[in-house]
Design a protein that fits this description.
The protein is an alpha/beta fold. The chain folds into three domains: 163 residues, Serine Threonine Protein Phosphatase 5, Tetratricopeptide repeat (Alpha Horseshoe); 165 residues, Heat Shock Protein 90 (2-Layer Sandwich), CATH 3.30.565; 137 residues, Response regulator (Rossmann fold, 3-Layer(aba) Sandwich). The protein is built from 21 helices and twelve strands. The longest helix has 125 residues.
Length: 610
């Protein structure tokens, strides 16, 4: 038994034995001899009987699976244990086998065990047969010879072990050097791969930042363009009203001359001016809608009244023999909820484009409701009286041409009515387009029906204002505002009072205290609005970096900077530092809510994909 095994406690030895025994059933045959050898050595710490059991199993293994050393050792150990147990016959039997094994290698004869067995045999024989003194001397001499041989064997074994040890040490050193070389090579490979990946990540980060800057510039450009167009609305309307009035006067004067060519030209001029008015009005309204400055006066209106006004505004179509505008509106149709002026313009736009779509001259305007009477569909058609079915139908996002011309015509009409579709959507409705080859087109405008046409309910009709439209853009949001200026803080809080819960801080220290509290409660704000110029030692940029570093959950939250800096380079610096967007003071409510809405939707989509 090895020195390391002797130092084991019985408890540890038991654990090791149990662990090794669990390996025996699945161990390959060439490993069982080593396992039994190890188990027998460990069992010596517990009991001789258990150790004997393992040595017997080792001895019984085929010679092809047991080394000579293991076979001799097992034979010697078995004989010794039987000797200690006073089972002399069994001890002698295994001593004979041990001697037989030693005869195969004469240089390894002799063993302490033989001496011990001989002595015990001598005593036993002396007791049983009263051995003579000479016989005892002979036995002792034999034992001395055996002892000398065994010592010689031990010396040779020691020298052999030393040689093997030195050889193993050299092999271990070679393996160590090879492992060291492999580790160094692996480290170089890892560093090389890491450097490449870091370079790729940095390249992607720069590309993302560049796109982010370009997107911000584009958004600002679009916002400024739409704000400019929206601001031009009153001037355009005034100019167009004058032009239309002049066209009407000109047409009236031309009629007195009884010149058919001049009359036709004057009607065409009036029609083109009306189309121009519709296009420019739609463009102004669309610009207002995109920056959340669209005013809608939603009221309950009789469908017949709306259609009558449309018919009167387009009377030039029949006056110039271009066709007939036929109205088929039942008296039972409920009122609709819409902005009357915009709906009249939308229907006029649809009728004009339907006339342009095909050679059919007659256009029909009809109306129907869905089964629940919650919606009213006004259908404009010149497709041989064929009407589109009503219901909750939305226009297709994409229309592809199959070569018949039908899809191409639908796509053209779909594009022409883009502004009208956007305005109808703003009023809570939809436009459905259907083209029937060269037979004409059908367009259905579906809008919510008024709850009742009674006077009481008409008086209670809700009229959404621009302010109300803006307030619905951002709702139920947990907002964190950092602003040291009391007046600016009050203004922003007023702008966002309908957007959700607002938590405010005046400096960096108060901000970190609030963030720490939220962190311990497992809460995270939905959006962060940071003023850049804060009381020392903090500024908005450093504060943002600190929060993202110490509280990783806030890396999934949009940060918006508020700045008084007007230079583009200063504003771009905020994007470079990690802000997701910025607002330039003085802050506009529409721009503030638009940016918040955009960033919240963007991060919602990003967090969903993570």
């Amino acid at each position: 038994m090895s020195a390391s095994a002797q130092t084991l406690s019985p408890a540890k030895a038991t654990l090791l034995i149990d662990s090794l025994e669990s390996l025996l059933p699945n161990a390959p045959d060439n490993r069982k001899a080593d396992l039994y050898d190890t188990l027998a050595g460990l069992a010596e710490l517990l009991s001789k009987e258990r150790s004997l059991d393992y040595y017997l199993k080792l001895y019984q293994l085929p010679d092809s699976l047991v080394s000579y050393r293991q076979k001799v050792k097992a034979t010697r150990k078995i004989a010794g244990i039987y000797l200690d147990m006073n089972q002399i016959d069994k001890a002698n039997r295994y001593i004979d086998r041990y001697a037989s094994e030693l005869q195969k290698y004469p240089q390894q004869t002799g063993d302490e065990l033989i001496k011990a067995v001989s002595e015990k045999n001598a005593l036993a024989i002396k007791k049983q047969f009263k051995l003579t003194k000479n016989e005892v001397l002979i036995i002792l001499l034999l034992l001395i010879v055996i002892a000398i041989l065994y010592l010689s064997y031990l010396y040779r074994r020691f020298k052999s072990t030393e040689n093997k040890k030195r050889l193993l040490q050299r092999e271990a050193e070679i393996i160590r050097l090879k492992n060291q070389e492999m580790e160094e090579e692996l480290e170089k490979t890892i560093q090389s791969k890491t450097s490449l990946e870091e370079a790729k990540i940095e390249k992607l980060r720069k590309s993302h930042l560049k796109l982010k800057k370009e997107l911000k510039k584009l958004e600002e450009s679009i916002y400024n363009r739409n704000a400019f167009l929206n601001g031009l609305g009153p001037e355009l309307r005034t100019a167009l009203s004058s032009i239309l009035g002049f066209s009407e006067e000109l047409r009236a004067e031309v009629e007195k001359l009884e010149n058919e060519d001049l009359k036709a030209n004057s009607i065409d001029l009036f029609a083109k001016n009306l189309q121009l008015d519709i296009i420019l009005e739609n463009m102004v309204d669309m610009s207002g809608a995109q920056i959340n400055l669209l005013n809608l006066d939603i009221q309950s209106h009789p469908v017949l009244l709306i259609v009558d006004k449309v018919s009167k505004s387009l009377r030039y179509l029949t006056e110039n023999d271009k066709g007939k505008l036929e109205v088929k509106i039942p008296n039972t149709i409920p009122n609709i909820k819409a902005d009357a002026d915009k709906l009249i313009r939308i229907l006029s736009d649809i009728i004009i484009n339907v006339y342009k779509q095909s050679t059919k001259d007659n256009v029909t305007i009809s109306a129907s409701t869905n089964q629940s009477l919650s919606e009213v569909s006004m259908v404009v058609s010149n497709a041989s009286g064929r009407l589109l079915r009503t219901g909750l139908e939305k226009p297709a996002k994409e229309i592809q041409d199959d070569g018949s011309g039908k899809e191409a015509g639908s796509l053209h009409l779909y594009t022409e009515l883009f502004a009208s579709r956007e305005l109808v959507a703003a009023m809570g409705g939809t436009i459905q387009i259907s083209l029937i080859s060269d037979e004409g087109a059908t367009v259905a405008v579906t809008l919510p029906a008024a709850e009742s046409t009674s006077k009481k309910q008409e008086q209670d009709t809700i009229r959404p204002t621009q302010k109300e439209a803006l307030s619905t853009l951002v709702k139920d949001v947990d907002i964190f505002l950092v602003e040291d200026d009391r007046m600016n803080r009050m203004v922003i809080e007023t702008m966002l009072k309908d957007a959700g819960k607002i938590t405010t801080a005046v400096d960096g220290e108060e901000t970190l205290q609030i963030i720490e509290k939220y962190h311990h409660e497992g809460k995270v704000f939905d959006i962060m609005l940071f003023d850049i110029n804060l009381p020392p030692p903090w500024d908005g940029i450093a504060l943002m970096h600190r929060i993202k570093r110490d509280y990783p959950e806030f890396r999934k939250v949009p940060f918006v900077a508020q700045t008084a800096y007007a230079m583009a380079s200063d504003r771009e610096r905020f994007l470079n530092e990690g802000f997701d967007d910025y607002l330039t003071k003085p802050i506009n409510k529409g721009e503030l809510l638009t940016i918040m809405h955009h960033q919240l939707e963007l991060f919602k989509e990003q967090n969903k994909n993570r």
